[in-house]
Amino acid sequence: MRLDKLLSHAGYGSRRDVKELIKKKHVLVNDEVIRKVNIKVDPKKDVIIVGDKKVDYEEYVYLMLNKPDGYLSATVDKYDPVVIDLIEGYEHIDLFPVGRLDKDTEGLLLITNDGAINHKLTSPNYAIPKTYYAKINGVVTEKDVEQFSKGVILDDGYQTKPGILNILSSAEVSEIELTITEGKFHQVKRMFKSVEKEVIYLKRIQMGEIKLDNKLNLSEFRKLNEKELNYLSSL
Ligand code: URA
What we know:
Helix content is 21%, strand content 26%. By secondary structure, the protein is an alpha+beta fold. Strands 5, 6, 7, 8, 9, 10, 11, 12 and 13 form a 9-stranded mixed beta sheet that branches. Strands 2-1-3-4 form a 4-stranded antiparallel beta sheet, with no helix packed on it. α1 crosses α2. The longest helix is centred in the first third of the chain and has 9 residues, at 15-23. The chain is elongated and about 70 Å long.
């Protein structure tokens, strides 16, 4: 990999900024002062130092965001704020959200620059379970549990795969957890619509083996820990 690309990716500014650092002899590779921008380095083997700091290069970044209401699951938008706006300190990396949560849905959203992992977590072929907590306008009953376990028919005629519905409290406003293995547009909201109920609050709490960290306030994010990364590597 080209040294200037690596340093730019590692947060040392644009390629032009990096060129400047190299020109000023601030960059060492394996104890040698570097004078050319276009030399190739192996980030796994070569020791790269800028100033007096060793460069820790990570090709891929994996973050967990507690998405707040009001943000689009997108990288840019003309009108609305997007989740990537919340990821401060990573502006030099082309991050994107893994799948989509609706603008008003909160909770677990993974953010990465790893397209392969994005594919695995969102592709129907992998059928990664996603668990949501929701408040429902209406009394959720065992009949709904039964119907969801067989799959329900959405407003466009699509028959969903089975979902595991767990009633936490059943009242005028019920609280539930629902685990599904698909991600059709507005799927949870439309599944409840099919049983004549309305989702009034929705939050994703788990994706595969990755659980939303309850220490993260809304809008906060953190890097995935080793256990979570091992899970991603196992996919
Ligand atoms: N289902 C929905 O209806 N909305 C989401 O944001 C996620 C799942």
